[in-house]
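Moderator note: this is an archived Q&A kept for reference. The question asked for a predicted structure of one protein chain; the sequence and the answer are reproduced below.
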Amino acid sequence: MNPANSEIPDVEPTTDRFPDDLVLIIGAGHFGKRAACILRDKSDSPILIIDKEKKSLEKIETLPTEKVVSDGVRFLAKNIDKLNPSSFIIPAIPLHLAAEWLKAYLEARGWKITLNEPPEEILSHLPHVWEGIGGTLLISYADFLCPDDCPEPLDHCPTTGETRPEPLHDLLSHLDVPKHQIYIVRSRQLAPGLGGYRAEDLRDLLKKVKQKEGKWLVGTACKCHGALTALEAHSAKGGAHSV
């Protein structure tokens, strides 16, 4: 593992494999710090926090975690194959990490990845929608700011008491969009108000895209909130690949 607070951008690990129970937090801002504090109190798993801004890491230097100065998306693209499949990744940057990671990983291997506008026909099938960075759609069952410690119950909103028709990750997975494939990475709650996904979830996304090039809707969602990015993926040779 790299020394804490490395000043080398895009640093590579000094070992070929990270600890099996590593938790990787991408982003050292408010949400990344909150995630680290919660996990440090409830788990002995090693935590590695990545942020491209040294100043952001310096603000949390007292937290007992490993810290590396690096672009989070590129760090994940370089090191995804060295993570244990069960290692959790916690996105804490204002980007759709799963889609940006997929783009960076494949482009580094000669693929052409184009970000597209999401198809308009899906909008009527979604609850509340906002436009995020790079054309990504931010989707939620809530039109208000949820409490930080929401326990994410299965069938209703604890704030309003209203029932949900189905978890958002299921709703997005079942969208029927002509000429598009869909893959939704499910975010699982690690603590109230804190979610992440496993490295194996991203690898499965990569496998599916390699098997079928073309137009994709790539999403990340928990039961209530999600992000959806439209992209088109083509390999350098123009043929389908397997992992």
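Archived answer notes: The two ends are 26 Å apart (CA to CA).
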